[in-house]
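Hey, resending since the last one bounced:
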Amino acid sequence: MEEKSRTFGAALFFCKMLYFLHMIEPSAFALLLTHSLAGVTIVGMVFVIVGTLYLFYKIITKKWSRFFSFISTFILPIGFFATLFGTFLSLYYSYGLYYVACELCWFQRVFLYPQVFMFALAWWKNDRTILKYSFLLSLIGFAIAVYHHMLQIGYNLYKPCSVLPFAADCAKPSFIEYGFVTMPFMAVVIFGFLLLTVGSTRLLRRYPKNG
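The structure tokens again:
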């Protein structure tokens, strides 16, 4: 209980620090934040790709993994903070930095936001039955985010967004960092991270500790 209180206290301190930095110089902070998050996104992308390849290797060889065993042990707090991080940042961009979210953005959020409460309650109750539901939500969110990212980097696909003048254009990126990192791509990495961690927890629990 004491460890959880310290963790939540650290998260609250981070949120307060982010708020005060934003109040100092919002526009400059927005550029710095976006550039920094793009770098973190690239690191996350590498982690997801390498982790997925490693997971397939362990599945093929049917061997236990110390790395994925560690993830399995802490999957509930990992899932909680990953979804909380994504939820907080998306809301901060909308209501703190006034980035207008399009319809596809909100479709992705529909499959992310509930997971914060799912993981919080599951962590509190130590209930792992929610993992299969998290995997399904993340899979749908991942597919929407990939489709949205492809729209924003120039693929000529069907756009489901509203044509009203005040509506945000799904195909128009709010930013592009490092030549390919968009807001939907950040969602791709978050959902991919959830799919990897949750999926590995469910898949590798069947293998004995022999590797």
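The mean pLDDT is 83.

Sorry for the duplicate.
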